[in-house]
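Slack export, channel: ligand-projects

TW: morning all. Re-posting the request from yesterday since it got buried. We need the structure predicted with the small molecule present, not the apo form. The ligand is glutathione; the SMILES is in the block with the sequence. No rush, but it would help planning for next week.
GE: picking it up
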Amino acid sequence: MPILPSDNSDIASLKGIHLYHAGISNCSMRVRIALEEKGLNWTSHEIDLGQQENLKDWYLAINPKGLVPAIVDDGVLVTESADILYYLEEKFPEPPLLSSDPVRADEAREWLDLAAALHMKAIKTWVYGSTGGASKKRSDMKHYAEIQSDKSLVQFHEHSLDGFTDQEIEVARKMLADVFGRVEIRLKDHVFLVGDTQSLADVAWLPQYVLLNMLGFDFRPFPSVVEWAKRQQQRQAYEKAVASWMPKVPGWVMRLGVRLKRFYSKLKPA
Ligand SMILES: N[C@@H](CCC(=O)N[C@@H](CS)C(=O)NCC(=O)O)C(=O)O
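GE: finished. pasting the full token output, ligand included:
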């Protein structure tokens, strides 16, 4: 678990739970959901990704990869959404999001680890690819390459500036459709992804649904997933953890914007 050693006295002196996050980030969403499911009090530090606040020196001292989310809990710094969820589960076991049955707990861990493993190659690639989006400017890349030790991130952002090919977007879409196909089979006759109660598996995958659905991913082949998401969205944690952080425009406006952006990005000369 990457509990990052920090000799930064500002971090070490923080009391309580501090979450560094962004509203629409799916990785941030899953941590906010876990915090709310567990009824924990936390202090919000919203990071403006559009303004690249995540790459400012003060934030790099918290997460050297310049990614959200990160938490500091009584001076203990943890990054990576999956690791933060494991940390919260260990430190605040009630109500449990991992079953006491080791087989069920292992299943939930597998779903969470799968969400983490697919983040760049499926989710991020589909989201950036299908929106024609790039979060960095070409002129920022030299500096970004200097400060970013994770070269796969540098490569990803460089590539996003040229645009993902239709084939790359399709490979990402297919990976996601395969996973949601598995989720669909499970949810046809179950309320939760694992066992009979809310677990880290639901917490890990709901944000993927929320983000992808907002951006127009086709969930029509997965009706049980859609019903599960509706149930999840009825949970008390959802309003505070997700809904209240989402853009205040209707989904169709977001999707229209996405299609227009994609259309114009295709018109741009290579
Ligand atoms: N593996 C990381 C991924 C975190 C991540 O990619 N966060 C995105 C938002 S969802 C971010 O900070 N992007 C800013 C950037 O790439 O500059 C995790 O699970 O926490």
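GE: first-pass observations. Residues 25-27, 49, 54, 66-69, 80-82, 116, 119, 135 surround glutathione (CB under 6 Å). The chain has two domains: 3-91, 102-267.
TW: perfect, thank you
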